[in-house]
Specification:
Length: 754
């Protein structure tokens, strides 16, 4: 008999010995890890026509039957007597609570027991994870359909284990959402926070206000309308689908900020009256709902009426984050409401606004959810807080007796990178590795012990600005959703990172059957362009232990290619291609590194009269998409840019158009190998074009390593001020950094001179 304490040891023994998924061994890979498990000798073998006994209309039984039938071709037969091979029973139990379950597998029988159908459903999800991953196949497949004998008694640490999808920034179809819900359900995720409205798109049909979707659901992108929305019938379809999977759907209707798509349709509810269009670039919009206008409240309440009627959740999320106050400061109506209600500032006006909405929701039997900004200016009495700007909002709210859900950006923002940004598609920024997410504890020490119960749980937020394709959404979600699930379910003392990382191997095969494009750790380290003198030694790492293969002849690496074994020394110009391989044989995307053998660049020993800054030629207007278009410009202006602000002086933030060419010098103190980083369109050093960033800004894939001797180097930066995929390129991003290869700080710009 193996007890819980042996879990890690047992897994590592099995995995290190290389026997990954062979059945006949108890390689248990359940995520989230059950809180109590003993593994016994022997196995239960599933056979056709085994008998099953379950409560009428059991969703749990239906799930198990459907999986066995589809993947294994095994049909269960309802038992007519009191006994059965598979026995599902509902029994009141304080220990198991609303979601817990007991799962006992012996050689002859499987007993599943819970206080609720939800608990039974989770017992089945655990049982499915004891079966080979092929059980997730959508077609009949061969496998050994047996499970180890175990005793599991399990219940969640937190009642809220959520994922937020932002269908406003990029629209997901009903089928795409269902696909995600299927996989969330495997991991006992029980809340789907549906971000339905924002500046860039209104996504839910409101029958009383058809223009919300006629106008607000579509924005112009690359000269074409982009968007979509969910009819109320489609919303009901998702609600039913989610409920069948133990998932509560919490709608978010953003107010008073992030409302531009609604205001494009109904500008009369803004402070200025518009006109507006749904926003086409990411970021925070200044035009918000007018908080001093009575009809605005009526409008929002009418919308909430339909939302409340549609969604059975007791919660309605009304956002409340990132609401600029610039319009309110200048709006006579907003100012009049502040005066008549004795509100000292616009923060208090937002609090007044939120409290009114809270009361309205209460009158409809609902509770208000809001981002932590709703604490500012006074929190609405019954509000539940989502703490996203770190943990402080959650700590304050919980200590003040409010329920909170922890979603701190530093840990559980699933829109962040999960590995080296050089190896991933462009993102909003930030880094939340799988290990980071797993390491999060939703109850910070500074929440008083008698207030800890106010922490309902945690949520991973996927803001979808940069998620242009469904495959990118899946890439961001998996495997990190499984870490969210385990943090939310498994008691702190039972968590185990090493075993979690190993259990991912089995889960990946399950995702393959769901056709999920999950993240595969890439060979990380080194720039994608490297110039070197004699030879260069390249170390690579992966964010989880996986094998790396490579080629030096330009061919695509495959399972038979040479295996990277610690470091790689290169002494001639080559194209290096690398891939990771997962235990099931699946290959990662290819990483390409161009290596060029060269002589060191020679720095100038002296340049007279250097001052801080760079010479700048610029034009304010004109839509330039390629550097060669600049040759036709005749109205250049000349100036000197000392600081970032000098650039913004002639170019308003978030305003595209124009171009700049900057000339100057950098100084390199000693001989060595340096990494050049610059997000401008072109970066020249010593007259050589070394960095080219066409298309996406916020992307450092073309950073280069070069050999430099000490001295001054002339540099030139060419910068086109454009909107790329919702991002305005900013001079801030164009500032170069030149750092020794052994200095990992990518952020500090290097001083420049002219
Ligand atoms: C948020 O990330 N603006 C809640
Ligand atoms: Zn106003």
């Amino acid at each position: 008999m193996k007890c819980l304490k042996c879990w890690g040891l047992m897994l590592s023994t099995i995995f290190l010995s290389g026997s990954s998924f062979a059945t006949g061994k108890a390689n248990i890979s359940i995520i989230p890890k059950p809180n109590q498990i003993t593994v016994n000798d022997g196995r239960f073998v599933f056979k056709n026509e085994m008998t099953v006994k379950a409560p009428a209309n059991s969703r749990a039984k239906a799930l198990l039957s459907q999986k066995l039938e589809t993947a294994a071709g095994i049909t269960l037969k309802n038992s007519t007597g009191g006994q059965a091979n598979l026995l599902f029973s509902i029994r009141q139990s304080a220990e198991l609570g609303q979601e817990g379950y007991r799962l006992q597998v012996t050689k002859n029988q499987i007993k599943l027991e819970a206080a609720t159908e939800n608990g039974l459903y989770y017992a089945v999800q655990s049982l499915l994870q004891l079966l080979p991953p092929q059980i997730e196949s959508k077609a009949k497949i061969s496998a050994t359909w047996e499970v180890p004998c175990v005793n599991i008694t399990d219940a969640p640490r937190f009642s809220y284990r959520g994922v937020m999808l932002d269908c406003s920034r990029h629209f997901s179809t009903i089928e795409e959402i269902k696909k995600m819900l299927d996989v969330f359900a495997i991991y006992k995720i029980n809340k789907f926070h549906w971000h339905l409205t924002d500046d860039q798109g209104w996504r839910i049909e409101i029958k009383r206000y058809p223009k919300l979707t006629e106008i607000g659901a579509f924005r112009m992108e690359d000269g074409k309308p982009y968007g979509g929305f969910y009819t109320q019938e489609q919303v009901k379809d998702i609600l039913k689908y989610a409920a069948e999977r133990n998932i509560e759907v919490i709608p978010e209707i953003e107010m008073p900020g992030h409302g531009l798509a609604a205001l494009a349709a109904y500008p009369e509810y803004s402070c200025t009256g518009g006109p507006f269009k749904p926003r086409t670039i990411w970021g925070v919009e200044d035009d918000v709902f007018c908080a001093g206008n009575e009809p605005t409240y009526q409008f929002l309440q009418n919308i909430l009426d339909e939302v409340c009627a549609l969604f059975p959740s007791k919660y309605v999320h009304v956002g409340g984050d990132e609401c600029p106050k610039v319009r309110w400061k200048e709006c006579p109506k907003c100012q009049a409401v502040m005066k008549s209600n004795g509100l000292k500032n616009e923060m208090e006006l937002q609090s007044y606004f939120t409290k009114r909405i809270e009361k309205y929701l209460e009158s409809k039997g609902k509770r208000l959810f809001g981002w932590d900004e709703i604490l500012e200016g006074g929190i609405a009495p019954s509000a539940t807080i989502m703490s996203w700007r770190g943990e402080q909002g959650g700590i304050e709210a919980a200590n003040a007796g409010h329920d909170v859900v922890m979603t701190p950006g530093g840990y559980v923002y699933l829109d962040h990178y999960q590995g080296d940004l050089l190896c991933e598609q462009v993102k909003i920024g930030g880094l939340s590795t799988l290990q980071n997410v797993y390491g999060y504890n939703p109850i910070p020490k500074s929440i008083a012990p008698d207030k800890a119960h106010h922490v309902l749980g945690l949520q991973g937020n996927l803001w979808q600005e940069y998620m242009y394709e469904p495959s990118q959404i899946e890439f961001q979600l998996f495997p990190r959703v499984t870490a969210i699930a385990e943090v939310g379910w498994t008691k702190l003392e039972n968590k185990d990172l090493d075993s979690f990382i190993q259990r991912i191997d089995d889960q990946q095969i399950r995702w393959d059957f769901h056709d999920v494009n999950y993240y595969i750790p890439m060979p990380e380290g080194n720039m994608n362009y490297i110039q070197f003198v004699d030879k260069v030694t390249l170390p690579f790492t992966t964010s989880r232990p996986v094998k790396i293969v490579y080629t030096l002849d330009g061919s695509e690496p495959n399972a038979a290619s040479p295996v990277y074994t610690g470091s790689l020394t290169i002494d001639k110009s080559v194209t290096l291609k690398l891939r990771s391989i997962l235990p099931q044989g699946k290959l990662s995307p290819v990483r390409i590194i161009e290596l060029t053998k060269t002589v060191p660049y020679k720095g100038l020993q002296k340049v007279e009269n250097l001052r801080k800054g760079m010479k700048m030629r610029y034009v304010k207007d004109g839509d330039y998409t390629a550097v060669d278009q600049l040759a036709s410009i005749s109205n250049w202006k000349d100036t000197v840019a000392i600081s970032v602000n000098d650039f913004f002086k002639f170019k308003k933030k978030e305003q595209s158009g124009g171009a700049a060419i900057l000339d100057g010098y950098i100084y390199v103190e000693k001989d060595g190998s340096y990494i050049l980083h610059c997000l401008a369109d072109q970066f020249y050093l010593d007259g050589k074009l070394l960095i080219v960033n066409d298309k996406m800004k916020k992307n450092a894939k073309s950073d280069i390593t070069v050999p430099l001797t000490a001295g001054y180097y002339p540099i030139k930066i060419v910068f086109l001020n454009r909107v790329y995929a919702g991002v305005v390129s900013e001079w801030m991003d164009a500032r170069p950094t030149v750092r020794p290869v052994d200095n990992s700080n990518r952020e500090l710009p290097t001083p420049v001179y002219y």
